[in-house]
Structure prediction request, 420 residues.
Amino acid sequence: MRMVKALAQAFLRLLWILTLAKCKIPDAHLTCLFSEDCVLPCSFQPGGNEIISWYRQEVLLLNHSHQGGDQSDQPPKDHRTRMYLLQDQLSRGNASLHLSQCGIKDRGRYRCQVNSTLGQQESFIIMKVEAPIKMVTMEISKNREIQCLSKDIFPAPRVQWSTLPPKANLRSTTHMAPNTEGLYSVQSKLRMFGNTPTYVCTVNSTYGSQSWKSSLQKGELTGEAGRELSIPCMAPQNFQNFFLTWTFAKTNDKSKVILSYVSQTRRTSNLWEGQVELEQDRVLMGDGSLLLHNPESQEHTGTYTCTFSGFQSRHMVQTQVAIRSTLRRSLTENMPNAEDQVGRTGESHSKMWVIAVVVAVVALVTTALLLYRKQRANQGKADRTTLEDTEMQPMETIKTSDDLPMDNCQLTAGHNNGHT
Ligand SMILES: *[C@@H]1O[C@H](CO)[C@@H](O)[C@H](O)[C@H]1NC(C)=O
Ligand SMILES: *[C@@H]1O[C@H](CO)[C@@H](O)[C@H](O)[C@H]1NC(C)=O
Ligand SMILES: *[C@@H]1O[C@H](CO)[C@@H](O)[C@H](O)[C@H]1NC(C)=O
Ligand SMILES: *[C@@H]1O[C@H](CO)[C@@H](O)[C@H](O)[C@H]1NC(C)=O
Prediction:
């Protein structure tokens, strides 16, 4: 038992020594923002006649000898390398390194070394550079693909898609490429599919400091000219301190802002004054629906986009609005009547057939009768010409009174009979 206890104690002491040895030079961590100034801290015990050296990845960046007191022969500033120390801080034991306009290449392990009459003191700092996400936008390309875009980010972020209602196995393609400064541009595409109104793109920074969300909802709406129309737009739940904008675009046209609203000041800027309006009491609760007062078919047909912008989030509602003119409406309403008329003309066509047949039959009968009568008359004429040539007048009278052929026939017959 005593042996075990002694061993355990020895082990613990060893562990403690090891921890101490490790803790002797603890690396400090620092994240600097891209293109901004950064201060790398370094404190030392002032002992006089210090020589201060800063290294990055063991490459000397800066050497400065400090004689004590505030005056120095040369200013510890190097414009060429964008690095400097503050003179007045050195006498207080502060040799912090100033770095102006941090770049991606400035990342690394820094060493601050101070040699003085007290000996050598050093400390290490691991410096990271981050270019935060400033905006995530979404757009729909022509071939029914939805794009999530962001740029000037470092390190390369993580992109994730989701939908509302949720759908599994979303297949997206993401392209990320650094520019000459080392900052990443992100372009992620997802093919749109039916019956999913909301697409959500999440872009997270590698260091976990940011999570941006951008969503897009699509819709369609048909209104009538002259009749008030409300184009719906609801903010996601618990969306606070937002900026709301409404834009309008006709097909193949650039979109222009028509209205904007700031929730904190409750101020609306309306560029379509008199034509559109927000409902003031509802907009504060996240209902940014737009009221179109007196829409006109030509002027107000197009794409209306409502955008809620808040802290690291953006929600867009894109509505395709068609305003039907009352003229067009009556035309479409008359369509069934027009079909009716087509039906009726069909009916009258068949009626006309009947009439045509009747007319043809009557004409045929009449012609037949006429021919018959003419033949008979000719026979009589032939008889008469042989008898008396002057008897043409009664024939003419018979001809004109065609409406009573039977009587004429009888007459002719009688006449003929009278002659014969
Ligand atoms: C920095 O100081 C050391 C020691 O005095 C010297 O050896 C070295 O040359 C100096 N480097 C520069 C760049 O001044
Ligand atoms: C050291 O000086 C820098 C400015 O050069 C300052 O920002 C920092 O707070 C100082 N550190 C201490 C411990 O005083
Ligand atoms: C500081 O002291 C260390 C160890 O004594 C030495 O290796 C180094 O060259 C010195 N640096 C300067 C700049 O004098
Ligand atoms: C992004 O961050 C959010 C919030 O921290 C988290 O819920 C989500 O899972 C993260 N997504 C990815 C892809 O890292």
In short: DSSP finds six helices and 24 strands in the chain. The pocket of 2-acetamido-2-deoxy-beta-D-glucopyranose (ligand 1) is lined by residues 51, 53, 60, 63 (CB under 6 Å).
